[in-house]
């Protein structure tokens, strides 16, 4: 993704979830030197063998498609520049070259004052207070990919980058997961799932700083013998990029993922493998959302214009309700104030309000933006407070009417961070949200109580 600069996704994490004092990993000098120099492990006897899921020579495999999978829409949206040849180096060959030159600052001739880092860093710089929110941000900066963790405090308006992680593939979507299969005491955790271009899902523990690798990888393709096939589910998963994720709060060990291979995979986090695969959805599964009150109902939207409600208990995979629209579906979102309904945005700038009891119909639809609507978010606290953001650089604030499901625009403004691809409300503060863009500081935290039209509309 040479030349691409953007926040591809972001997500708020509720207060009290993050560990007050995160753990910090300290690499020894040999490990740090290896990371900086990008040492490549010695080859093994299996290196010449084909990976799980590869096709015969001459067929397309991997990100750009597998056999009969059509990737036109996906390639147009995500793949520009990703498969371009560089200098022939493999991913990861360079390690941290260019980022750091010395594994020990004492070896750096330009550093003349050597201070112990533990003495230099005060404890309160890494403390996450009980009234702090954490915000995870997936960032693509040309050839660099990072997952950054910000801290926000409503009382004193603090906003700063707390720590980050270096990723080895472009992050397309992220999703907080508060179920930790490694925590035998409570089962709860502060994890984040990252969907990537390489068909894997990397899960990071946000309570661990300075780690160089994810806590868990789902869908990792393992080497296999030519004469033996695996008979378990350990190698199943997506065959192409993971472009949507949703954690099931009502069934905490379940994570759903939507792929460019047109399938939805339900992952059992305790077993670290798929529990169910919902086959061909008619298009690349761009967006998914679990029902807030019913643990088995999944709402999804595809790049072919399909919107479906799937009951995961139905092994046939037939949708319980379905719609078909022109254009690509960008975002689907349940209305948690009226869970029979949901909001849908698309790349033709249209916003729709749907009722699950009326398949094929719309409660309301209208043009909300000039172009794709990448961000769609509903306040967790203020009933009917809906925000959309789009590639036209506009932020629009809407009021959803209870009586008829209609949607009225109450405020609109152009932000100064380029095209807008994602937005989400703070789960603990009624009118504060963050927006991700493509220029300047890339991220904006917005307090809607500072806008008189919004305050007036929701005080009536």
UniProtKB/TrEMBL annotation:
WD repeats lie at residues 235-277. Pfam families: WD40 (PF00400). Gene3D superfamilies: YVTN repeat-like/Quinoprotein amine dehydrogenase (2.130.10.10). Residues 36-70 are annotated as: Disordered. Residues 44-58 have a biased composition (Acidic residues). Keywords: Phosphoprotein, Repeat, WD repeat. PANTHER family: PERIODIC TRYPTOPHAN PROTEIN 1, PERIODIC TRYPTOPHAN PROTEIN 1 HOMOLOG. One of its GO terms (cellular component) is nucleus. This is WD_REPEATS_REGION domain-containing protein. GO terms for biological process: rRNA processing. PROSITE patterns: WD_REPEATS_1 (PS00678), WD_REPEATS_2 (PS50082), WD_REPEATS_REGION (PS50294).
């Amino acid at each position: 993704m040479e030349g691409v600069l953007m926040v591809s996704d972001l997500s708020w994490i509720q207060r009290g979830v993050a560990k007050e004092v995160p753990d910090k990993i300290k690499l020894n000098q040999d490990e740090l030197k290896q990371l900086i120099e990008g040492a490549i492990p010695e080859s093994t006897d299996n290196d010449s063998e084909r990976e799980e899921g590869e096709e015969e020579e001459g067929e397309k495999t991997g990100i750009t498609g597998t056999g009969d999978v059509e990737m036109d829409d996906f390639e147009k949206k995500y793949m520009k520049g990703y498969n371009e040849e560089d200098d022939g180096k493999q991913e990861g060959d360079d390690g941290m070259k260019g980022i750091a030159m010395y594994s020990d600052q004492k070896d750096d001739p330009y550093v003349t004052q050597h201070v112990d880092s533990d003495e230099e860093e005060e404890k309160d710089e890494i403390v996450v207070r009980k009234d702090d929110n954490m915000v995870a941000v997936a960032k693509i900066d040309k050839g660099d990919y990072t997952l950054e963790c910000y801290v926000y405090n409503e009382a004193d308006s603090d906003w700063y980058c707390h720590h980050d992680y270096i990723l080895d593939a472009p992050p397309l979507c992220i999703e907080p997961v508060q179920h930790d299969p490694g925590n035998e005491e409570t089962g709860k955790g502060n994890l984040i799932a990252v969907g990537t271009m390489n068909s894997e899902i990397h899960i990071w523990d946000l309570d661990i700083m300075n780690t160089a690798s994810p806590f868990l990888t789902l869908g990792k393709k393992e080497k296999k013998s030519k004469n033996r096939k695996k008979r378990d589910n350990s190698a199943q998963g997506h065959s192409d990029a993971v472009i949507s994720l949703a954690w099931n709060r009502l069934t905490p060990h379940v994570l759903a993922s939507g792929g460019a291979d047109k399938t939805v995979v339900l992952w059992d986090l305790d077993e670290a493998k798929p529990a169910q695969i919902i086959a061909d959805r008619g298009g690349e599964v761009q967006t998914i959302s679990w029902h807030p009150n019913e643990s088995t109902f999944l709402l999804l939207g595809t790049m072919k214009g399909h919107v479906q409600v799937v009951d995961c208990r139905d092994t046939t995979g037939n949708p319980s309700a379905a719609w078909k629209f022109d254009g690509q579906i960008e975002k689907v979102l349940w209305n948690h104030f009226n869970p029979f309904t949901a909001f849908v945005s698309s790349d033709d700038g249209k916003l729709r309000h749907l009722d699950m009891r009326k398949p094929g119909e719309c409660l309301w639809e209208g043009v909300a933006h000039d172009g794709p609507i990448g961000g769609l978010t509903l306040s967790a606290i203020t009933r009917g407070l809906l925000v959309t953001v789009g590639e036209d650089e506009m932020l629009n604030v809407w009021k959803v009417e209870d009586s008829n499901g209609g949607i009225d625009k109450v405020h609109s403004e152009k932000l100064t961070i380029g095209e807008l691809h994602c937005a989400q409300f703070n789960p603990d503060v009624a009118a504060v949200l963050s927006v991700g863009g493509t220029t300047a500081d890339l991220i904006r935290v917005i307090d809607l109580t500072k806008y008189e039209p919004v305050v007036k509309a929701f005080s009536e």
